[in-house]
Amino acid sequence: MEWLIRMKEALDYMESKMEEPLNIDDIAKVAYSSPFHFQRMFNMLTGVTVADYIRRRRLTLAAQELAISKVKVLDVALKYGYDSPESFAKAFRKAHGMAPSTAREPGIQLKAFPRLSFHLSLKGDKEMDYRIVEKEDFTVIGKSIQVTTRDGENLRKIPQLWLDANEDGTSDKLIEIGVDKDLLGICAEMDYPNEMFSYWIAVEGRPGTDPQGYATTVIPAATWAVFTSVGPMPHAIQSVWSRIFQEWFPSSGYEHTGGPEFELYLPGNPGAEDYQCEVWVPIKKK
Q: Which CATH class, in words, describes the domain spanning 2-104?
Protein backbone atom coordinates (compact mmCIF):
# COMPACT_ATOMS: atom_id res chain seq x y z
CA MET A 1 0.00 0.00 0.00
CA GLU A 2 2.87 2.38 0.82
CA TRP A 3 4.37 2.19 -2.67
CA LEU A 4 0.94 2.94 -4.17
CA ILE A 5 0.65 6.11 -2.09
CA ARG A 6 4.14 7.18 -3.12
CA MET A 7 3.45 6.64 -6.81
CA LYS A 8 0.22 8.63 -6.49
CA GLU A 9 2.09 11.45 -4.78
CA ALA A 10 4.66 11.44 -7.58
CA LEU A 11 1.86 11.70 -10.15
CA ASP A 12 0.31 14.57 -8.22
CA TYR A 13 3.69 16.31 -8.15
CA MET A 14 4.18 15.90 -11.91
CA GLU A 15 0.70 17.21 -12.63
CA SER A 16 1.29 20.30 -10.47
CA LYS A 17 4.51 21.09 -12.35
CA MET A 18 3.38 20.66 -15.97
CA GLU A 19 4.03 24.35 -16.64
CA GLU A 20 7.49 24.24 -15.03
CA PRO A 21 10.73 22.35 -15.67
CA LEU A 22 10.47 18.83 -14.27
CA ASN A 23 13.51 17.01 -12.94
CA ILE A 24 13.44 13.23 -12.59
CA ASP A 25 15.52 13.42 -9.40
CA ASP A 26 12.84 15.59 -7.77
CA ILE A 27 10.01 13.34 -8.99
CA ALA A 28 11.73 10.20 -7.69
CA LYS A 29 12.41 11.91 -4.36
CA VAL A 30 8.66 12.38 -3.87
CA ALA A 31 8.29 8.60 -4.28
CA TYR A 32 11.24 7.91 -1.90
CA SER A 33 12.93 6.05 -4.73
CA SER A 34 16.09 6.22 -6.78
CA PRO A 35 15.57 7.96 -10.13
CA PHE A 36 16.28 4.81 -12.12
CA HIS A 37 14.05 2.54 -10.04
CA PHE A 38 11.19 5.04 -10.19
CA GLN A 39 11.46 5.31 -13.97
CA ARG A 40 11.66 1.54 -14.42
CA MET A 41 8.68 0.97 -12.10
CA PHE A 42 6.66 3.69 -13.82
CA ASN A 43 7.39 2.30 -17.27
CA MET A 44 6.52 -1.28 -16.32
CA LEU A 45 3.33 -0.28 -14.49
CA THR A 46 1.96 2.17 -17.06
CA GLY A 47 3.47 1.12 -20.37
CA VAL A 48 4.93 4.60 -20.99
CA THR A 49 8.11 6.27 -19.84
CA VAL A 50 8.04 9.21 -17.43
CA ALA A 51 9.31 11.51 -20.19
CA ASP A 52 6.65 10.31 -22.63
CA TYR A 53 3.91 10.71 -20.02
CA ILE A 54 4.94 14.29 -19.29
CA ARG A 55 5.21 15.09 -22.99
CA ARG A 56 1.75 13.68 -23.76
CA ARG A 57 0.13 15.43 -20.81
CA ARG A 58 1.68 18.78 -21.75
CA LEU A 59 0.49 18.45 -25.34
CA THR A 60 -2.99 17.54 -24.09
CA LEU A 61 -3.12 20.60 -21.84
CA ALA A 62 -1.70 22.78 -24.61
CA ALA A 63 -4.42 21.64 -27.02
CA GLN A 64 -7.13 22.36 -24.46
CA GLU A 65 -5.73 25.83 -23.87
CA LEU A 66 -5.55 26.64 -27.58
CA ALA A 67 -9.12 25.44 -28.09
CA ILE A 68 -10.68 27.65 -25.43
CA SER A 69 -8.55 30.80 -25.49
CA LYS A 70 -6.97 33.31 -27.84
CA VAL A 71 -3.50 32.93 -26.34
CA LYS A 72 -0.66 33.04 -28.87
CA VAL A 73 0.78 29.73 -30.06
CA LEU A 74 4.26 30.96 -29.11
CA ASP A 75 3.15 31.64 -25.54
CA VAL A 76 1.60 28.18 -25.24
CA ALA A 77 4.75 26.60 -26.67
CA LEU A 78 6.96 28.35 -24.13
CA LYS A 79 4.55 27.62 -21.29
CA TYR A 80 4.79 23.89 -21.88
CA GLY A 81 8.53 23.69 -22.29
CA TYR A 82 9.18 24.11 -26.02
CA ASP A 83 12.00 26.38 -27.17
CA SER A 84 10.38 27.46 -30.42
CA PRO A 85 7.05 27.44 -32.25
CA GLU A 86 8.60 25.06 -34.78
CA SER A 87 9.49 22.37 -32.24
CA PHE A 88 6.10 22.77 -30.59
CA ALA A 89 4.27 22.54 -33.91
CA LYS A 90 6.15 19.36 -34.83
CA ALA A 91 5.33 17.67 -31.50
CA PHE A 92 1.74 18.94 -31.61
CA ARG A 93 1.17 17.64 -35.12
CA LYS A 94 2.58 14.25 -34.15
CA ALA A 95 0.27 14.04 -31.12
CA HIS A 96 -2.91 15.54 -32.57
CA GLY A 97 -2.50 15.17 -36.33
CA MET A 98 -2.84 18.90 -36.99
CA ALA A 99 -1.10 22.25 -36.60
CA PRO A 100 -1.57 24.11 -33.28
CA SER A 101 -3.55 26.87 -35.00
CA THR A 102 -6.03 24.31 -36.33
CA ALA A 103 -6.97 23.40 -32.76
CA ARG A 104 -8.88 26.68 -32.57
CA GLU A 105 -11.31 25.76 -35.35
CA PRO A 106 -14.89 25.14 -34.17
CA GLY A 107 -15.78 21.46 -33.75
CA ILE A 108 -12.24 20.22 -34.31
CA GLN A 109 -11.51 16.85 -32.71
CA LEU A 110 -8.48 16.75 -30.45
CA LYS A 111 -6.78 13.79 -28.81
CA ALA A 112 -6.44 13.71 -25.03
CA PHE A 113 -3.98 11.70 -22.96
CA PRO A 114 -5.74 11.54 -19.59
CA ARG A 115 -4.03 11.83 -16.25
CA LEU A 116 -2.99 8.45 -14.91
CA SER A 117 -4.09 7.14 -11.54
CA PHE A 118 -3.13 4.10 -9.48
CA HIS A 119 -5.68 1.91 -7.74
CA LEU A 120 -5.13 -0.77 -5.13
CA SER A 121 -5.45 -4.27 -6.58
CA LEU A 122 -5.02 -7.27 -4.32
CA LYS A 123 -2.74 -9.81 -5.98
CA GLY A 124 -0.27 -12.44 -4.95
CA ASP A 125 -2.63 -15.41 -5.10
CA LYS A 126 -0.11 -17.19 -7.31
CA GLU A 127 3.38 -18.00 -6.07
CA MET A 128 6.45 -16.52 -7.74
CA ASP A 129 9.50 -18.74 -8.05
CA TYR A 130 12.73 -16.78 -7.59
CA ARG A 131 16.20 -17.04 -6.11
CA ILE A 132 18.89 -14.56 -5.11
CA VAL A 133 22.22 -15.01 -6.92
CA GLU A 134 25.56 -13.29 -6.33
CA LYS A 135 27.51 -13.23 -9.59
CA GLU A 136 30.88 -11.71 -10.42
CA ASP A 137 31.28 -9.58 -13.53
CA PHE A 138 31.26 -11.52 -16.78
CA THR A 139 31.86 -10.86 -20.44
CA VAL A 140 29.17 -11.37 -23.04
CA ILE A 141 29.62 -11.77 -26.79
CA GLY A 142 26.91 -10.84 -29.22
CA LYS A 143 25.12 -8.34 -31.39
CA SER A 144 23.56 -5.12 -30.13
CA ILE A 145 21.40 -2.23 -31.28
CA GLN A 146 20.52 1.16 -29.80
CA VAL A 147 16.78 1.64 -29.45
CA THR A 148 14.42 4.20 -28.02
CA THR A 149 11.29 3.57 -26.01
CA ARG A 150 9.67 6.56 -27.70
CA ASP A 151 6.61 5.64 -29.78
CA GLY A 152 7.21 1.96 -29.00
CA GLU A 153 10.24 1.69 -31.28
CA ASN A 154 11.81 -0.91 -28.97
CA LEU A 155 8.72 -3.10 -29.29
CA ARG A 156 9.26 -3.26 -33.05
CA LYS A 157 13.03 -3.34 -33.41
CA ILE A 158 13.88 -5.93 -30.74
CA PRO A 159 11.58 -8.68 -32.13
CA GLN A 160 12.98 -7.92 -35.59
CA LEU A 161 16.54 -8.28 -34.25
CA TRP A 162 15.64 -11.73 -32.88
CA LEU A 163 13.93 -12.74 -36.11
CA ASP A 164 16.99 -11.75 -38.13
CA ALA A 165 19.39 -13.48 -35.71
CA ASN A 166 17.44 -16.73 -35.86
CA GLU A 167 17.14 -16.62 -39.65
CA ASP A 168 20.70 -15.62 -40.56
CA GLY A 169 22.39 -18.09 -38.21
CA THR A 170 23.63 -15.53 -35.65
CA SER A 171 21.89 -17.31 -32.77
CA ASP A 172 23.46 -20.67 -33.65
CA LYS A 173 26.93 -19.13 -34.08
CA LEU A 174 26.73 -17.42 -30.70
CA ILE A 175 25.65 -20.64 -28.98
CA GLU A 176 28.76 -22.33 -30.41
CA ILE A 177 30.96 -19.55 -28.98
CA GLY A 178 29.34 -19.33 -25.54
CA VAL A 179 30.03 -21.07 -22.25
CA ASP A 180 26.79 -23.02 -22.57
CA LYS A 181 23.80 -23.21 -24.88
CA ASP A 182 21.88 -20.37 -23.19
CA LEU A 183 21.10 -17.22 -25.17
CA LEU A 184 20.75 -13.90 -23.36
CA GLY A 185 18.52 -10.96 -24.24
CA ILE A 186 20.15 -8.03 -22.42
CA CYS A 187 18.91 -4.50 -21.75
CA ALA A 188 21.93 -2.34 -20.93
CA GLU A 189 23.00 1.31 -20.76
CA MET A 190 19.41 2.23 -19.93
CA ASP A 191 19.01 5.99 -20.23
CA TYR A 192 15.40 6.67 -19.25
CA PRO A 193 15.58 10.49 -19.28
CA ASN A 194 16.53 10.28 -22.97
CA GLU A 195 14.38 7.18 -23.56
CA MET A 196 17.29 5.15 -24.95
CA PHE A 197 18.96 1.84 -24.17
CA SER A 198 21.07 -0.81 -25.89
CA TYR A 199 19.73 -4.31 -26.47
CA TRP A 200 21.96 -7.34 -26.91
CA ILE A 201 21.45 -10.85 -28.20
CA ALA A 202 24.44 -12.52 -26.61
CA VAL A 203 26.08 -15.42 -24.80
CA GLU A 204 28.40 -15.53 -21.84
CA GLY A 205 31.96 -15.88 -23.09
CA ARG A 206 34.79 -17.90 -21.66
CA PRO A 207 37.99 -16.04 -20.67
CA GLY A 208 40.07 -15.49 -23.80
CA THR A 209 37.29 -16.56 -26.16
CA ASP A 210 37.64 -15.29 -29.72
CA PRO A 211 34.46 -13.22 -30.34
CA GLN A 212 34.74 -14.06 -34.05
CA GLY A 213 33.78 -10.57 -35.13
CA TYR A 214 30.94 -10.06 -32.67
CA ALA A 215 30.89 -7.24 -30.11
CA THR A 216 31.71 -7.75 -26.43
CA THR A 217 30.78 -5.99 -23.22
CA VAL A 218 31.14 -6.63 -19.50
CA ILE A 219 28.12 -7.15 -17.26
CA PRO A 220 29.11 -5.80 -13.82
CA ALA A 221 29.09 -7.91 -10.68
CA ALA A 222 25.72 -7.74 -8.97
CA THR A 223 23.19 -9.34 -6.70
CA TRP A 224 20.45 -10.71 -8.92
CA ALA A 225 16.85 -11.67 -8.32
CA VAL A 226 16.25 -14.55 -10.72
CA PHE A 227 12.67 -15.41 -11.68
CA THR A 228 11.59 -18.57 -13.50
CA SER A 229 9.13 -18.32 -16.37
CA VAL A 230 7.20 -21.43 -17.38
CA GLY A 231 5.08 -21.46 -20.51
CA PRO A 232 5.11 -20.48 -24.18
CA MET A 233 6.96 -17.38 -25.29
CA PRO A 234 6.47 -14.48 -25.25
CA HIS A 235 3.33 -14.35 -23.10
CA ALA A 236 4.71 -16.32 -20.15
CA ILE A 237 7.80 -14.18 -19.70
CA GLN A 238 5.85 -10.95 -20.26
CA SER A 239 3.60 -12.00 -17.39
CA VAL A 240 6.65 -12.59 -15.19
CA TRP A 241 7.99 -9.11 -15.96
CA SER A 242 4.65 -7.56 -15.04
CA ARG A 243 4.45 -9.44 -11.75
CA ILE A 244 8.04 -8.51 -10.81
CA PHE A 245 7.16 -4.82 -10.89
CA GLN A 246 3.51 -4.99 -9.83
CA GLU A 247 3.89 -7.49 -6.99
CA TRP A 248 7.45 -8.43 -6.11
CA PHE A 249 9.30 -5.10 -5.98
CA PRO A 250 6.59 -3.25 -3.99
CA SER A 251 6.67 -5.91 -1.26
CA SER A 252 10.28 -7.11 -1.34
CA GLY A 253 12.34 -4.34 0.26
CA TYR A 254 14.58 -4.31 -2.83
CA GLU A 255 14.90 -1.93 -5.74
CA HIS A 256 16.54 -2.06 -9.16
CA THR A 257 20.21 -1.03 -9.16
CA GLY A 258 20.01 0.58 -12.58
CA GLY A 259 22.44 -1.92 -14.09
CA PRO A 260 21.83 -4.25 -17.04
CA GLU A 261 18.99 -6.77 -16.79
CA PHE A 262 18.49 -9.81 -18.98
CA GLU A 263 16.39 -12.75 -20.00
CA LEU A 264 18.13 -16.13 -20.13
CA TYR A 265 16.72 -18.49 -22.75
CA LEU A 266 17.36 -22.15 -21.99
CA PRO A 267 17.43 -24.84 -24.70
CA GLY A 268 14.02 -26.17 -25.65
CA ASN A 269 10.91 -25.32 -27.61
CA PRO A 270 9.92 -21.70 -26.79
CA GLY A 271 6.35 -22.44 -27.83
CA ALA A 272 5.87 -25.38 -25.46
CA GLU A 273 3.62 -25.19 -22.42
CA ASP A 274 6.48 -26.37 -20.19
CA TYR A 275 9.24 -24.20 -21.69
CA GLN A 276 11.41 -22.64 -18.99
CA CYS A 277 13.48 -19.47 -19.16
CA GLU A 278 14.61 -16.89 -16.61
CA VAL A 279 14.52 -13.17 -15.87
CA TRP A 280 17.60 -11.73 -14.13
CA VAL A 281 17.16 -8.34 -12.42
CA PRO A 282 20.01 -6.58 -10.53
CA ILE A 283 18.83 -5.56 -7.06
CA LYS A 284 19.91 -3.74 -3.92
CA LYS A 285 18.27 -3.17 -0.54
CA LYS A 286 16.29 0.04 -0.26
A: mainly alpha
Tell whether domain 130-285 is in CATH 3.20.80.10: yes
Are 190 and 36 spatial neighbours (Cβ–Cβ below 8 Å)? Answer: yes
Instruction: Report yes or no: 74 and 83 within 8 Å, Cβ to Cβ.
Output: no
Task: Give the Cα separation of 94 and 92 in Å (integer).
Answer: 5
In the chain, where does the domain assigned CATH 3.20.80.10 lie?
Answer: 130-285
- Taking the model in full, what pTM does it have? 0.88
Q: CB–CB of 203/140 below 8 Å? A: yes
19-32 burial, b for 16+ CB within 10 Å, e for fewer?
Answer: eeebebeebbebbe
Q: Following CA atoms 219, 221, 227, 233 in sequence, which dihedral angle do they give, to the nearest 10 degrees?
A: 10
| Cα separations in angstroms, 212 against 107, 208, 265 | 62, 12, 22
Taking the C-alpha atoms of residue 124 and residue 247, their distance in angstroms, rounded to an integer, is: 7
pLDDT in tens, 30-86: 999 999 999 999 999 888 999 999 999 999 999 999 999 999 999 999 999 999 999
Q: How far apart are CA 170 and CA 164, in angstroms?
A: 8
CA-to-CA dists, residue 202 to 59, 165, 205, angstroms: 39, 10, 9
